[in-house]
Structure formats: C-alpha cells, structure tokens
Amino acid sequence: MKVKIRNTFLILLGNFLLALAVGFFILPYNILSGGVAGIAVALHSFIQIPTDVMVNALVIGLFFVGWILLGKDFAIKTVVSSFVYPVFLTLISSFLTPPANLDPILASLYGGLIAGVGIGLVIRTGSSTGGMDIPPLVVHKYTNISIAKLILITDFLTVLLGLFAYNLETVLIGIISVFTTSYAIDKVLVVGGQESKSVQIISAEYDKISKEIHDKLNRGTTITLARGGYTNDEKNVVLAVVSQNQYPQLIDIINEIDPKAFIITTDTTDVHGEGFSFGYRV
C-alpha cells in the first residue's frame, strides 16, 4: 500500500511538472520541443486550434491508440497520466501567466529541464506519460528497434517539422529543449543510487587482497578465472564494489600487498544488494 501511494504521488507530481513546463514555457514561447507539445507548436501555424487544446486531444487520442495496439497492461499503467496531464495543463494555462519577455533560449532550457524531471518521476514508477511515448512503443513492438533510439528519432523529427512553419533559429532553440529533457530524465532515474566504484584487480596475490577487502573494508569480493590474450596464461581476477570514500583505502591495500597489481576501476551510479541497498552506509 505504501508503494502504491508513493507511486501515485510521483505520477501526479511528474505530470504536474510536465504540464507546468509545457503550459508555462513551451507553448507560450512556441518552443519546438519533442512530444505532443512540439507537434502542437509545429502544427499551430497550419491548424488554427489553441495549442493546449491540441495537446490534450493528442494525449487522449494516443492513449486509445496505445490501448488498442499495446494492450490492456499498457493502458492500466498509462491511464492516470493520459487523463490527469490534460487537466493540469488546462488549469495551468488558464490561471498562470507566463513570464513576459523571457529569452526563448531560457524558456527552452528550463522548460526542457522541468519536463525531464516530470517524465523521469513517472518513469521511475514503471508507468508512462503517454503522448508521444506511444508511437515509439508501437514501432518497437513490431521491429525490436531500441525504444531510446525511437524516442530520439521521434523528437528529432518533431523538431524538424517546425522548419516548414518557422525558421532555423526556432528549430535550434527547440533542440535545446530536447537535449535538456533527455539529460534531466537520465539524472532523475539514477538519483538516490549509491555512487560507488567497481574495481577489478589482477594479481598473483589475489587471495591476500580478497581477504584484506573482507577484513578491512567489510566488502564482499568475486573471484573469476581469466586467460591472458597475449600470454595465454590463466589469471585470477578479484572484483569488488566499494563506496567512494573507501576507494583510496582499497588502493592502499592493493599497493601494500602487490604494487604491480593491474587495477581497472569503473564508476557506478546505482548498486543494489547487501551493504548498499539494505541500509549499510560507510
């Protein structure tokens, strides 16, 4: 029940932020962003329908397309967003006055960032914001092309559509919104993750190194057998994941035991398991 309440809150908050970005920045300043807002802005010069009305119609229409082509499970996960988002957008467009004389570049930047945060919050719950997420999902179902690639292609084509109605400067400003939205989504999806270091150690003293990691750092290790590509010799590799502040101590341990050890370090942004996601923090 707590998870359902949290997820419902995140879906509502995410859709409110997305509606705020669209109603306060993107539509008033005709920003050619990705998604249904970008399509509404691009088509507005050809179809004289208010952009907020066009956005709401596209969101609800695409929801039913997704229901038909993607099934009941998709519809259940998306129904809240598809009907709450238009309500938020209508309220924001009606009662909030956008800032006057704001630089379109700033409107594109902040509109993209706020929209990305909102979309990211919804995605974290396993749900979808609907809208222009649906065509890429439909194409993916029948082609198995990466969803991320399809979304990027869809957003890029949406921005290019503006070339027929606006000018190159407007398109370039719109691309700012597309990339800032993508950046914000990525950051929201990894927020709260334990930033750590994944370290692979190749050494003849692998047993000693592994034991010291257990005893001094209270971290587990995995030992795998590898074969040298040039020498064809078999070697043992120690894999350990440690927190950021433990990493210097790990390097000291390795250098003390085997100064010639070969070390490969990779940054990690999200680690789950005992010692990381079960409340143990160093």
TrEMBL record:
It is found in: Cell membrane. The keyword Oxidoreductase does not apply. GO terms for cellular component: plasma membrane. It is a multi-pass membrane protein. This is Uncharacterized membrane-anchored protein YitT, contains DUF161 and DUF2179 domains. Pfam families: DUF2179, YitT_membrane. Residues 219-273 form the DUF2179 domain. Keywords: Cell membrane, Membrane, Transmembrane, Transmembrane helix. It comes from Anaerorhabdus furcosa. InterPro entries: DUF2179, N-reg_PII/ATP_PRibTrfase_C, UPF0750_membrane, YitT. The chain crosses the membrane at residues 12-41, 53-70, 82-99, 105-126, 147-166, 172-190.
